[in-house]
Amino acid sequence: MCEAAAYIIRNGKEELFLEDVDIIEPEGDELRLVSIFGEQKVIKAAIQSLNLVNHKVILKER
Amino acid sequence: MCEAAAYIIRNGKEELFLEDVDIIEPEGDELRLVSIFGEQKVIKAAIQSLNLVNHKVILKER
Fold first, then answer.
1. Residue A1 pLDDT > 80
2. Per-residue confidence at B53, pLDDT binned at 50, 70, 90?
3. How many domains does chain B have?
4. Domain that includes residue A33, residue range
5. What does the alpha-carbon distance between residue B43 and residue A39 come to, in Å, rounded to a whole number?
6. Would the CB atoms of A36 and B53 count as touching at under 8 Å?
């Protein structure tokens, strides 16, 4: 499976925000993330970087 | 491998922009995409949606 873990940068550190992320959709200045298990989270953030081979998404708060 | 194909929406249709994408990094109002083969492309676009399980990234031009 090719889901990824999404981390948010807080105080200069990467904090796990959601595991097993399947879908990411920007909506205005928010991001909607949905995991392969259907868990959904919305955060006021932007994508800082995606690394698909390493299964890692880095978010930064707006 | 978990690379994805990136498509850009033009005239309402999805056009393949870059295959085997590993890394996506927003830089200002541009996106830098790097494939697993090191091919790099920059486009004035935003991420419209990511679907990691389906290996699909949809971009929209700015």
1. no
2. very high
3. 1
4. 4-61
5. 31
6. yes
